[in-house]
Amino acid sequence: MNDIDALKRGCMATFKVIYHQYHPKLYAFLLKKTSSAYLAEEVLQLSFIKLWNSRKSLSDTLDLDIQLFRIARTTAIDELRKDASRNNHINQLEHDIIHVDHLRLDEKAQLNQIERAIEELPPVRKTVFKLSRYNHLSNAEIAEMLGLAEKTVENHINLALKSLRLYRDAF
After folding, report:
1. Which of 14, 142, 148, 158 is least enclosed, having the fewest CB within 10 Å?
2. 93-170, which class in CATH?
3. pLDDT tens-place string over residues 71-121
4. pTM for the whole thing?
5. Which residues are within 8 A (CB) of 89 and not within 5 positions of it... i.e. 6 or more apart?
6. 45: helix, coil or strand?
7. 137, 131 contact by CB (below 8 A)
8. Separation of alpha carbons 131 and 141, rounded Å
9. 3-91: what CATH class?
């Protein structure tokens, strides 16, 4: 009885013999193809699993080693494609993270510029602007608090915004 017939009938003893017989040769073949001991071992195990799972469809006309190496080669190609796809995803994630970090740095730089521009405003205008934007007080509340006319508060806020826009556009 040949090995293919025994495999087709589910003979585990024959499978073990085939495993031990072909393991070193198949591993060397896969190591050469993948250039990775880890990947070669993974593909080797997957190849033997596929051999066992597809044992009923093995060809009687082709030698077992040809069929086993064909399974290993196609499995290696599949795994290398998956690995390449994972690497592409990882590279894209790294790119996205770096891009976000650059955006954050740009945003921080812009915020620092805005803070400097606010600090350069005349004292009353700076106070009015901060009370409006940071403390969320209404123009009426600011006017009452600082003893100014509501229209004066409105003018200070408008002039502060105009100064900030000019400052922003300068950079």
Report:
1. 158
2. mainly alpha
3. 999 999 988 888 877 777 777 777 777 766 666 666 777 778 888 888 888
4. 0.52
5. none
6. helix
7. yes
8. 9
9. mainly alpha
